[in-house]
Amino acid sequence: MYWPHDEPDLDGKKVAIIGTGSTGVQLATELSKVAGQLTIFQRSPNLAIPMKQVDYKLPEQAIPKSEYPNLFAQRVKSFTGLTFNFLPRATFDDTPEDRIKTYESLWAEGDFQFWLAAYHDMLFSTDANREAYNFWRDKTRAKIHDPKIADILAPMEQLYAFGCKRISLENGYFEIFNLQHVELVDTSATPIVEITEKGVKTSVKEMEFDYIICATGFDAVTGGLAQIDIKGASGKTLKEHWKDGAKTYLGLSVAGFPNLFFTYGPQGPTALCNGPTCVELQGDWIVAAMDYMKENGLAKMDAKVESEIEWKQQIWNLANASLLPGTKSVSTLSCISIAISIDYT
User: Fold this and answer.
1) What is the pLDDT of residues 229-268, one digit of tens each?
2) Which domain holds residue 314?
3) How large a percentage of the chain has pLDDT more than 70?
4) Which residues contact 18 (CB under 8 A, 6 or more apart)?
5) Is 287 among the domain residues?
């Protein structure tokens, strides 16, 4: 993300935000407080859930330090590297009344609990996923005054599987659309045609803005590595190696690039898991591998091409057991942690 070093003065200005991913949600929430006119261009709804932010006053804190050892130990036993896990029962094991009580309890907890501490079949069963979506939809629509805006932000008919795009946390995002100076443009119905000298031209009209913010995403998985001029034994760069798609072994190494290890990269848990937990596990694995090489007098460690192929196929096999592949998202394979739990031990 590129943002001016000198903070722009957006107070009272006409501002456009293109994109409603996690960055767009955060920007929109904050800029609604200062912009004179804020227009948000949405391609697909962000199924964000409440953050439940708490402002603790020292020495008060969410978890006492005495409980840290247990907290850190539990993270590595969790499916997502967090301190909670899926429920040990399926969605329709509960009666409709008990199901609502469960959803309400998870919703009240905030954080990612409604997503990743829910029924264990939510990301694997279409019917179970629809139940979770319907609850999210009704909770969200209740925050929005205009039914037409609610139809765009939280459609009655589910557009894609809940939780199979990376979930954003929000703190007042949906409520900003009740403000007079905030406008929502559904680009699936009114697409952007071009960016003009005055602002943004849609299929319906040209809209004038002082500032246009593009929150349209970035290559968060392969981008950081591919931008570095890393060359393998053959002289081929990592970017060239990945020109037809990411290929790794264990999401840690690449064939033809001996002694190159990375954390939080493609085809590892990465963006859909708890980052610190993931990096810690991967870091421990890399250190253990280097220690092994040192102890055994080995000069290099290099993944095999066939190992990359097998790893990629294993990821797809696991992903296809879930609802992930049915979601239109470029990160489905690269950030497959919801469908794959890697044991780096």
Assistant:
1) 899 999 999 999 999 888 999 999 999 999 999 998 899 8
2) 223-326
3) 94
4) 24, 41, 192, 200, 212, 213, 214, 215, 216
5) yes
Percentages helix, strand, coil for the chain, rounded to the nearest 5?
35, 10, 55
Helix and strand numbers (H, E) in the chain are 10, 9
Q: Is there a domain that residue 6 lies in?
A: no
Into how many domains does the chain fold? 1
By CB neighbour count within 10 A (0-12 exposed, 13-18 middle, 19+ buried), where does 241 fall? buried
Q: Any residues with CB less than 8 A from the CB of 43 and at least 6 apart, and which?
A: 19, 20, 187, 188
Structure tokens belonging to residue 109: 């907890």
61 pairs with which residues across the strands? none
The answer to whether position 261 is within a domain reads yes
Which residues have CB under 8 Å from 200's CB, separation 6+? 16, 18, 39, 41, 192, 194, 206, 207, 209, 212
pTM of the shown model: 0.88
Asked if residue 205 belongs to a domain, the reply is no
- Bridge partner residues of 212 (DSSP): 16
Give the separation between CA 49 and CA 171, rounded to whole angstroms.
8
pLDDT, tens digit, 9 for 90 and up, residues 313-322: 998 898 899 9
Separation CA 118–CA 84 (nearest Å): 10
Q: Which of 72-81, 158-167, 177-186, 327-336 has the lowest mean pLDDT?
A: 327-336
203 in Cβ contact with 5 (< 8 Å): no
Residue 185 β-bridge partners = 41
Q: Which helix (H) or strand (E) holds 75?
A: helix 68-75
